[in-house]
Design a protein that fits this description.
The chain is built from eleven helices and no strands. By secondary structure, it is an all-alpha fold. It has one domain. It is globular. The N terminus is likely disordered.
Amino acid sequence: MLGGKNSKLKLDFLTTLKGAVTLALDPSRADATPDIEDGMIKLKATELAIDYVKTMPGVASIIQERYLATAPDLAYLAQLPPGSLGKCFAEYIEQTGFDPNYYRALPVTDDTSYVLTRLRQTHDIWHLVTGLGSSVNAELGLQAFCLAQIRIPLPILLIAGGLLRTLFTQPEELGLLLEQIAIGYRMGAKAKPFLAQKWEENWEKPLSQVREELNITIVDEYIP
């Protein structure tokens, strides 16, 4: 029994290590992030993070509901009024060339798998609403935002890896990266819980109103 548990821990560690090494070599490889996250699902830190987010207003109920939305219809969203959440999201996806459905499917079997699935499903919406763009530094800024909001271990590993990579390969960029991380963390600590939001039911709401309601203040130079 113990041997089986140890084998599972080794497998989880190897999965995490594989994703971490891939991202260290190529930060643009967003497909490596689920490898890291999947390898940390059973960590005590992940369990504590899920317990923590369930204390936030609105989060426990959406977790219990297992709310998940269908894939966004970008053609429909593009027809919504200018400045609306949906219209801005469609423009953001077109501008960046991202696939909003790129995320790896994860069977929802418990609270942890639900939270991770919902985070993956709404990752690009978080980028848009926070104003933290699509560069590597901005991605780490969003990870700092997630850390402040959720406390799951993935952002810690990604931020640490980003800092180390910048230190050794682009030290002149270290100040800018630290600034993005600081902006993201402060924003996340101040904002209302993003996990509690049913974004897909508010596509027609003005993006400016969404940000105001969630206590998001955009730093101009980081608007996507």
